[in-house]
Amino acid sequence: MTEERLAKFRQATKRRQNNLTVILENVHDHHNISAVLRTCDSVGIKEIFVLYTQKNLNLTHLKLNKQTSSGARRWVDVNFYTDVEACFEHVRRNYDKIYSTHLDEEPTSLYDLDLTASVALLFGNEHDGVSEAALKHSDGNFIIPQMGLVQSLNISVACAVTIYEALRQRDLKGMYDENVPMTSIEQQALYDSFVDRQLNRKKGNIVVKIK
């Protein structure tokens, strides 16, 4: 492994945001999940959560497209759950707030959220949105302002718009530079993990934790 590659790992681990994550509930299209993974990696997100509660969805369905994810699937952990309560219990252990993309009577604009805090962002599937069971765990709902007629975005696009707003806010606070959220010990552990993944990489592999 080259020094250039190791230096890239050091830089990436320093910039990882371990207090920002995404939850995808019953997202059918694995191309969308792969695209979300790629965007999450680019923003510095360390892990995401994939929740499948519909009978036609299971781990076999979670087939992540190599071309779309562009290798990001090896660097972003995927926590896979089939139980709503177990999933959100895990999320709550690591993140303080959960905000969902859901239209209610008084949704908050994305641009009014504080995305520099410890936060998980919940997105529902392409057809039904966020389920009532998942909404019970949400601390609030937000919308992405839109000026067109259709008033809807593809799930991977909506996720990209949202977490890049998080990147903008965090960059202004120096959270990718002098005010990083991860401790030096956490950074070293992640760096060691990246090196191990590089040395032991397998074609089509992704880190998936099944619960």
Task: Explain how this protein is built.
With 211 residues, the chain is an alpha/beta fold. The protein has a single domain, classed as Alpha/beta knot (3-Layer(aba) Sandwich). The chain has seven helices and eight strands; from the N terminus they run αβαβαβαβββαβααβ. It has helices at residues 3-15, 30-43, 66-69, 84-94, 132-135, 155-172, 184-199; strands at residues 20-25, 47-51, 77-81, 97-101, 108-109, 119-123, 140-143, 208-210. The protein has an eight-stranded parallel β-sheet, sandwiched between helices. Helix 3 links the parallel strand 2 (47-51) and strand 3 (77-81). It starts with a helix and ends with a strand.
Taking strands numbered 1, 2, ... along the chain, how are they ordered across the largest sheet? 5-7-4-6-1-2-3-8
What's the total helix number?
Answer: 7
Largest sheet: 8 strands, parallel
Low-confidence stretches: 65-70
Structural class: alpha/beta
CATH architecture: 3-Layer(aba) Sandwich
Task: Supply the number of structural domains.
Answer: 1
Radius of gyration: 17 Å
Relevant CATH superfamily: SPOUT methyltransferase, trefoil knot domain
- Outline type: globular
What is the name of the CATH class? Alpha Beta
Report strand %. Answer: 15-25%
* Topology, number of strands: 8
The CATH topology comes to Alpha/beta knot
SSE pattern: HEHEHEHEEEHEHHE
Overall mean pLDDT stands at: 88
Helix content: 25-40%
